[in-house]
Amino acid sequence: MSVRVLIRKPTPADCQELLALHHRSQEFHHPWVTPPLNERDCQDYIDRCHQADFEGLLICHVANDRIIGVANFSQIFYRSFQNAYLGYYADVDFAGQGLMSEGVRLAIDYAFGILKLHRIEANIQPENRASIDLVKRLNFTREGFSRRYLKIDGEWRDHERYALTVEDWH
């Protein structure tokens, strides 16, 4: 199988391309995720990617380095927990092509290999079937249901909780 995507850390030079992706995909992302829609918030996101408890990765097309999605690991804990929360989203122009599955797979390899995490958790709204299907393809296990778990777009939303450990990854 040929490699179609790569992952890399965002830089300030990526801000305009990210903003264009976010605006183009805004309706597609609603109500699942609300990425930055202005330059200040985008720069804040890129700055956050340099903090110890957060790792943001761009998923890019190998052919032209175009950003086709984002994978984030937030609230990274070490010591006896070694856990992070995974969030991701795609550019609407590349949805449904399997590129995000490939990119998130690379991001998980990075989290277990480079970040030395033991466990990754993904919390997904039950109506977001595409995202649930993605984590299931990647061998995540459904662990439970969290009522009114996150406030997104001004509303507290239910989520299904999925997790993957390094032992189940390889």
TrEMBL record:
Keywords: Acyltransferase, Transferase
InterPro entries: Acyl_CoA_acyltransferase, GNAT_dom, N-acetyltransferase
GO molecular function, one term: protein-N-terminal-alanine acetyltransferase activity
Keyword Electron transport: no
Residue span, N-acetyltransferase domain: 5-167
This protein's GO CC annotations: cytoplasm
Superkingdom as given in the UniProt entry: Bacteria
PROSITE patterns xref list: GNAT (PS51186)
Keyword Transferase among record annotations: yes
Family note: Belongs to the acetyltransferase family. RimJ subfamily.
Protein name: N-acetyltransferase
